[in-house]
Write a structure and sequence with these properties.
alpha/beta, Rossmann fold, 8-stranded mixed β-sheet, two-stranded antiparallel sheet, 13 helices
Length: about 270
């Protein structure tokens, strides 16, 4: 594993991990709310590394990346951060993989820079809009009930809500060691970052019918954060979309059933 730092929008330093075949097609993994690049350990440490160049970075405000006080509501900032990673590491024709909040970052990038520099897009348990009744309709009541705790400046309240979120993500519970690692990564994200991410109000559904690159939509049938109906809606809206519904998996489908997920991602990338 190689680590590096990329300078994103407004001079923010972004931490990047990379492994795999440097001659292979790049796959760039983008984590979700209040998590980190470590979410993708079962992909980075898999046989995908034999054939693909695997890259995962910490979003601003997360993991080992800088945590500025603001900038989290600006679509162009998120787009510029991802562009900086793609440009600085020369990740042409990459497949962009986004989990949960991650597809919003990818759609920010496409809105500002188009699809020309990417090979495809994997939306994993993802959403395409925030801040409206339609956006709320695809989120589970269990997730929505935790949001006030995400915004709280009280560290114990925040920790409790984030722990419950992690538990919601899995159909197959992680070990105590895995859970505690995820929780420590999650609570290291300042509350104001979560406030910024979730206070955005925007809708990317206008982009979906215009997407020309292939899109793989992956969703756990037991997702307790984003309802599976969201995946069906995205499949209907995107012209070149394939839907992979994973039966024995929850929101973190790539963790719950890593072998199945990795095999389907491999096939998607090989057929581009």
């Amino acid at each position: 594993m190689q680590s590096s730092t990329v300078t994103g929008a407004d001079g923010v330093k972004l931490h990047v991990d990379e492994t795999g075949n440097r001659s292979g097609r790049p796959i760039v993994f983008i984590h979700g709310l209040s998590q980190s690049r470590l979410s993708w350990s079962k992909q980075l440490d898999s046989d995908l590394s034999r054939d693909f160049r695997l890259v995962a970075y910490d979003l601003r405000g997360h993991g080992l990346s800088d945590k500025p006080n603001d900038g989290y509501t600006d679509s162009k900032v998120w787009a510029d951060d991802l562009k900086a990673v793609l440009d600085e590491l020369r990740l042409g024709d990459a497949v962009l993989v986004g989990w949960s909040y991650g597809p919003l970052v990818i759609l920010d990038y496409i809105r500002h820079y188009g699809e020309g520099g990417i090979g495809g897009f994997n939306m994993v348990g993802g959403v395409s809009k925030l801040g409206s009744d339609q956006a709320m309709a695809v989120l589970t009541p269990e997730f929505i009930s935790l949001v006030p705790g995400f915004f709280s400046a009280d560290s114990e309240e925040g920790r409790s809500s984030l722990g419950e979120l992690i538990r919601l993500c899995f159909a197959n519970s992680p070990s105590d060691v895995e859970f505690n690692t995820m929780l420590e990564q999650s609570v290291s994200v300042p509350y104001y970052v979560r406030q910024g991410l979730l206070s955005r109000a925007f809708d990317n559904d206008d982009l979906l019918p215009e997407l020309q690159k292939p899109v793989l939509i992956t969703h756990g049938a037991k997702d307790a954060v984003v309802k599976p109906v969201a995946a069906e809606q995205h499949k209907s809206a995107i012209p070149k979309a394939e839907l992979h519904m994973v039966e024995n998996a929850g929101h973190a489908v790539f963790w719950d059933d890593a072998a199945n997920y990795n095999a389907r991602l491999r096939t998607f990338c090989e057929n581009l």
